[in-house]
Amino acid sequence: xxxxxxxxxxxxxxxxxxxxxxxxxxxxxxxxxxxxxxxxxxxxxxxxxxxxxxxxxxxxxxxxxxxxxxxxxxxxxxxxxxxxxxxxxxxxxxxxxxxxxxxxxxxxxxxxxxxxxxxxxxxxxxxxxxxxxxxxxxxxxxxxxxxxxxxxxxxxxxxxxxxxxxxxxxxxxxxxxxxxxxxxxxxxxxxxxxxxxxxxxxxxxxxxxxxxxxxxxxxxxxxxxxxxxxxxxxxxxxxxxxxxxxxxxxxxxxxxxxxxxxxxxxxxxxxxxxxxxxxxxxxxxxxxxxxxxxxxxxxxxxxxxxxxxxx
Length: 311
Ligand code: HSE
What we know:
Blueprint lengths: L4 E11 L8 E17 L4 E7 L13 H13 L4 E8 L9 H16 L6 H16 L7 H6 L2 E7 L2 E6 L6 E7 L5 H6 L7 H20 L2 H7 L6 H4 L6 H10 L4 E4 L6 E5 L2 H17 L4 E7 L6 E2 L2
Parallel strand pairs: 3-4
Antiparallel strand pairs: 1-2, 1-11, 2-4, 2-5, 5-6, 7-9, 7-10, 8-9
Helix pairs in contact: 1-2, 1-3, 2-3, 6-7, 9-10
Bound molecules: L-homoserine.
The site of L-homoserine has 14 residues, from helix 5.
């Protein structure tokens, strides 16, 4: 049988979105990972890494998020098909914008296509989560779900898995800011409290409900009031030099809300126009600079598409 090849691009994502720890995430238009996936005669998964900070990513399939996701997929369909996966990283690993999820999502979409699409995108999610577990040591879906499905996703339940698309107001824009250092997701998860006070749980639940209603009604004041995180931000903020100052710079420039993207060190902000999302990016980069850190801003609409098959 002649060997086949496919190229797939998957984009970055913002997880947690302040009040939605482990249960809300959205996709952004850039940066992205670009994967070329080739069938090969010999069984097994061969991974070749290139691009940004590629040296820091393991190439053994079991330890690589894309490799592990594909092993989980192949195990389910009982296939011995071998693949060579060339991963060109455009999303820095350890940045907090779903780098590992993007590679896993693109790999799954590519392998699914090469094998005649035995699964739909929702079915691929569980395999993507197996990949994510390699990077974070936990089964969370708030990066992999938006990376695979696009849009703004609510994970209503993990067991059983219940994934819902939230409505996105037309003029809602995101800004992701990547400071030039990494945070290991496993370490950032170890910092989390094992228990939270009932009062905090009630407040977080209220904010999460307010956030989803704010999306439904395109009520940006309500969105902003709801973007408070009592679970992760209080402990993770200390990982990011100048965090509260940079956050304030975003708010002073007109952002609706601003928080830590995933487990950091990236920050994200939401705005009600493209122009403000760009200005917020400039203000946050400048604020990080004053705190001695280089950073890059990615203003973007909420990206509504699944990974793109390029050729
Ligand atoms: N929800 C996950 C966390 C996202 O905050 O640990 C990791 O990027």
